[in-house]
Amino acid sequence: TSHFPLLISQALVRLPPMGTDLRLQVCPLTLDPLVHSRSSSQRQGDGVLIQKGFNQMLKFVISYSCGKDSALALYRMLQEGHQAVGLLVMINREQERSWFHGVDRPLLEAVSHALGIPLIPCACAGEDYAAAMEAGLGRAQKMGAEAAVFGDIDIAGHREWCTARCAAAGLKALFPLWQQERLALTREVIDLGFSALIKCVEKSKTSIKMLGQTLTHELVAAIAAGGADACGENGEYHTFVYDGPIFSYPLPIETGAVLDFGTHAAIDLNIAKQNKPGTQL
Questions:
Q1: Of 6, 252, 234, which is closest to residue 106 (Cα–Cα)?
Q2: pLDDT tens-digit map of 99-144
Q3: Strand duo 59-63 + 147-149: pairing
Q4: pTM for this model (two decimals)
Q5: CA dist., res. 114 & res. 243, Å (int)
């Protein structure tokens, strides 16, 4: 899911800070015209998608949480022939980890390398979250982005907030998964071959025992049977995608300690030092 400021105080996972520097890679890009038409039978979400048979494509930045929904939104845009200029990631300035999912900088850098898309890290505290996102979107526009893509599904407040940030930065906001059935989207992630590990859970709705497990149809059914939304759209759980059709190789991930924060719990993840890029877990 994307980031809505009211959720910061509710879903913040406090993890130990990491001090690793992160370099922003900038790719020189040129804008291309965009074709807005597409038949209703071919439409996905409400994003501006190219019509088959045309060569025009859209350059975009994606608000990338490292979770399954943002990965699926990115996959759909790439499948349409559009080009990602950057992964915009909101980072807790104090902890040096991404907001909500708690992914540290070395792991974010590894994700960027495996996807072949530059990182646009946006460090902030809770009070300047909106301003930091707008600044990051402005950087993306200078890199050639015409639009920003979000993995939100059906929470109107999230969409409105993200759209306002894009408007301030002069970008169009696109939501490729918008108003599609939640469970169907989760199943699509699995069926496409994405490997999405459960990174954080809201303990009252999702079992802490599921931390570190990779989503399967059986695990999704178990989540739903426990009374949580199978997609986790309401924050019941967050995932970390470490492999899939948009990755050039699977990230060699090792799990660390499970950290309990009262209402929420998270599992720490690191790049497995004994493995080389391209090896399996």
A1: 252
A2: 888 899 999 999 999 999 999 999 998 889 999 999 999 999 999 9
A3: parallel
A4: 0.80
A5: 9
